[in-house]
Write a structure and sequence with these properties.
alpha/beta; Rossmann fold; two-stranded antiparallel ribbon
Length: 371
């Protein structure tokens, strides 16, 4: 008997229907999450999500967060969302809009809020806490662990990658979708210190965003005594550059090492100063760098996105991740002209349509993986 040359029609039909469902859910998410679209049409054709206040475990003990999910017992694909360092509060309308958009598109979405990130600090412990929150979510009866993963933006994207690499969950993550992450604290801190960023034409001057500068200073001074940290932060924020300040600083050797990073004027000087930091601080920087553990991420899908003109985290950081993952199946990278960091820009109609289609293509694999 000859072997059929074509796939079984029911199998093909199921694949087509699955792709159509993923496309519809992607459209629902895009139309709901982007503020330039009215929400009412999406609300008419989708079920109102349920929002629960839940308690989940972290490395520092129990924490509370909001869980958005569709009505019914599921099982639903689960997603842990880490928004990183945001300049607005957890009750901002756009936060609820994101949770509702994911739930209307079929996800059970746990919004993870880091106390450190809310204080504009980076803490390696957040990677463990995110992994614990994820494990809690996929053990919730209404969630299917085989179709679940992480979503992160800004430094939350970097920590989502770190969490997905942790041994307690890495074999149970179907996807990691991140937007505007950094690849390495080492290169990110070097570029902030030297006020440079790299784009298509090479290095250029970078007017570092105040939020980025604040997080950078807090990250560098995290291991110092509070009095030293306050002194160096005040010095960096003074009207005169730190190298023009009086050199008689009351600092420890670790504090002087941080000061040398702050007075660096070139990328080479900043890099050398970073590598002269105390051993605990160097270990801390590495522990918060996704490139150090990216090969331990076993999710079949890693979706990276970044805007080319991002002024908070330069696009060169995501490009480093892209280059490292170039030969890896399931790794996807998309660049946009649609966002200022994570906020959509106002664009003329034709560029806007082009960028929205690009955003749809970036988002679609996430919903395809969830089916």
């Amino acid at each position: 008997m000859s072997t059929p040359r074509h796939a079984n029609p029911p199998t093909m039909l199921r694949a087509v229907l699955r792709s159509a469902r993923a496309g519809a859910r992607t459209a629902i998410f895009v139309l709901k999450v982007l503020p330039m679209f009215p929400s009412a049409p999406v609300d008419w054709v989708t079920k109102r999500p349920i929002v629960e206040r839940v308690t989940y475990p972290t490395a520092a003990g129990e924490a509370q967060g909001d869980l958005y999910h569709p009505p019914g017992s599921g099982p639903h694909p689960g997603i842990v969302v880490c928004l990183g360092v945001v300049p607005f509060g957890v009750d901002h309308p756009q936060v609820a809009r994101l949770g509702e958009a994911l739930a209307r598109a079929g996800f059970a979405a746990l919004l993870y809020w880091s106390p450190a990130m809310r204080d504009r600090r980076l803490d390696p412990v957040d990677a463990e806490s995110l992994a614990l929150a994820y494990r809690w979510l996929i053990e919730w009866p209404a969630v299917d662990p085989a179709r679940s993963g992480f979503l992160g933006t800004c430094v939350g994207g970097a920590f989502a990658l770190l969490a997905a690499a942790r041994p307690e969950v890495r074999d149970r993550v179907a996807f990691v979708a991140v937007f505007a992450p950094y690849a390495s604290v080492w290169t990110f801190a070097r570029d902030v210190a030297a006020h440079i960023r790299t784009r298509d034409h090479g290095p250029e001057h970078w007017d570092v965003d105040p939020l980025t500068r604040d997080v950078f200073l807090r990250a560098l001074t995290a291991d110092l005594a509070p009095s030293e940290a306050e002194q160096l932060i005040a010095l960096a924020d003074a009207p005169d550059p730190p190298d023009q300040q009086p050199p008689d600083l009351d600092l420890s050797s670790a504090g002087h090492a941080v000061h040398r990073v702050l007075v660096a004027s070139t990328a080479a000087e900043a890099d050398a100063a970073l590598h002269a930091l105390s051993a605990p601080m160097q270990d801390r920087l590495t522990a918060m760098s996704p490139l150090a553990t990216i090969d331990d991420v076993r999710a079949p899908l890693i979706a990276l996105g970044h805007d080319r003109d991002d002024g908070v985290i330069p696009v060169s950081e995501s490009r480093r991740l892209r280059d490292h993952l170039a030969a890896r199946p399931g790794a996807r990278y998309t660049e946009f002209h649609l966002f200022q960091h994570a906020t959509p820009k106002r664009l003329p109609i034709l560029p806007l349509v082009r960028e929205l289609l690009r955003f749809y293509r970036y988002t679609y694999p996430l919903f395809r993986a969830a089916l």
